[in-house]
Amino acid sequence: MATAAAGSLGLLWGWLWSERFWLPQNVSWTDLEGPGDGYGYPRARHMLSVFPLAAGIFSVRLLFERFVAKPCALHVGIEDSGPYPAQPNAILEQVFISITKYPDEKRLEGLSKQLDWDVRKIQCWFRRRRNQDKPPTLTKFCESMWRFTFYLCIFCYGIRFLWLSPWFWDTRQCWNNYPYQPLSRELSFYYIMELAFYWSLMFSQFTDIKRKDFLIMFVHHLATIGLITFSYINNMVRVGTLVMCLHDASDFLLEAAKLANYAKYQRLCDTLFVIFGVVFMVTRLGLYPFWILNTTLFESWEIIGPYPSWWLFNGLLLILQVLHIIWSYLIARIAFKALIRGKVTYPGGLDPDSVLSTLFSPPSFFLCLVGAGQFHLLHVSKDDRSDVESSSEEEDETTCTKSPSGSSSSNGANWVNGHMRGSCWAQE
After folding, report:
1. Which one is predicted more confidently, 5 or 404?
2. Is 290 exposed, middle or buried (CB count within 10 Å of its CB: 0-12, 13-18, 19+)?
3. How far apart, in whole angstroms, are the C-alpha atoms of residue 384 and residue 208?
4. Which end of the chain is more exposed for a tag (fewer CB within 10 A), N or C?
């Protein structure tokens, strides 16, 4: 029985690592066993070093958030406090958990009669109960600051490394003498660090803030890990470094804009998001197809020719380009509607935190709005979202103790989390 199981496992392993699928013709795994020059050739066993490194990165993150990010958050005025808790009520809690978190008018009237509460008081209770499940701004700031720091450091390292690499200036060097292209120590470090970071995100996703796009991001991390691992084992590391660096170019800008938003530096937030949008469009719609896809599709075909895993690799890269086009179109369309109509609506009920989830970027979305003579980001009018909420006690007290319409300025704009609603982010 054990012999049969071992034989079946061996057949499965041989099928997964078929030389005819993964490698060009007349190349075998034994040909890549030699050390080559420098750091040797990529090998599947190198991937084992990723897991302890990912655990180390996760540990460093915990220390960073505790001793660096949190003091910075407190310094810029972010309070270390959670949302104002809702008054305990068994009936409303049962409705909240089992039926709906957003009761309609008919249900509100029924609950009002059952509890002898004012409808406004019940609305306030549900708002506070929803905010109670939201993480404090301090936690979100610390998470974003960690990602900003890593993305910025790895992007700077990647640019510095690629600047001295010949394939950065001549992409045909990605395929010359392929697959006999030995690793350098710097290239191996860059690749392994990127892969270890995404594995650390897989670990931390179960302890981080739970967002609506949890499942999408889980699949996204798996796909990213698969692409990086595949390109490493297949020794397509040269073109892989170009892809990683290109996608890292906008990541730290997005996190920087989120940090500015959490700190309530709205003008800085708007500026960073405009820069992020420009960089995103240039890298994903310009450099990616005319620089990356050009070399993976045409130059590689000319130099090494196609083979089975070549089709898989380019198929995944083309799917990624389709996603770039779709999300860029949505960004441009929503921004255009904002300029024309003066407010933002999400097409198809899209959640702004989920729109970029399938890209090699953190989940978020950028929109522009002209209001009061300037651009504003991530504006959501009350017509488009029934309940604009905040996790702060100040917002709860304002909306729950004043008139049903909430506090307003002279031009009727509601206040949310310390900003006028026309210039605030949609809550995550």
Report:
1. 5
2. exposed
3. 28
4. N
CA distance 3 to 101: 56
Q: What is the DSSP letter of 367?
A: -
Measure the CA–CA gap between 366 and 277, rounded to whole angstroms: 7
Distance between CA 90 and CA 96 in Å, rounded?
Answer: 10
Task: Note the pLDDT of residue 4.
Answer: 62
Residue 239 and residue 174: Cα distance in Å, rounded?
6
Contact partners, residue 219, CB within 8 Å, separation at least 6 = none
| CA distances from residue 169 to 162, 172, 249 in whole angstroms, order as listed | 9, 9, 17
- Degrees (nearest 5) of the Cα angle 331, 333, 335? 65
The pLDDT assigned to 176 comes to 92
The answer to whether the beta carbons of residues 178 and 27 sit under 8 Å apart is no
Q: How far is CA 422 from the centre of its chain?
A: 25
Lowest mean pLDDT among 128-142, 170-184, 208-222, 368-382: 368-382
CA distance 200 to 53: 9
CA atoms within 13 A on the CB side of 4: 1
CB contact at 8 A, 390 and 427: yes
Instruction: Give pLDDT, residue 324.
Output: 83
pLDDT digits (tens, 9 = 90+) for 113-168: 888 888 888 888 888 888 877 778 888 899 999 999 999 999 999 999 999 999 99
Q: Could you give the CA distance from residue 305 to residue 26 in angstroms, rounded to a whole number?
A: 13
* Residue 6 backbone dihedrals phi, psi, to 5 degrees: -65, -40
At 88, the amino acid letter reads: P
DSSP type of residue 376: E
The SS3 call for residue 389 is: coil
Query: What is the C-alpha to C-alpha distance for residues 341 and 362, in angstroms, rounded to an integer?
Result: 28
> Which pair of structure tokens corresponds to residue 294?
């050009």
Amino acid identity, position 44: A
* Backbone conformation region of residue 425, classed left if phi is above 0, alpha if psi is from -120 to 50, else beta: beta
Give dist(CA 369, CA 341) in Å, integer. 9
Identify which of 145, 187, 136, 142 has the alpha carbon closest to the alpha carbon of residue 164. Answer: 187
Cα separation of 83 and 134, whole Å? 8
Alpha carbons within 13 A on the beta-carbon side of 349: 2
pTM: 0.73
Average pLDDT, the chain: 75
- Which of the four pLDDT bands, split at 50, 70 and 90, describes residue 225? confident
Helix crossing, 185-204 with 137-163: angle to 10°? Answer: 160
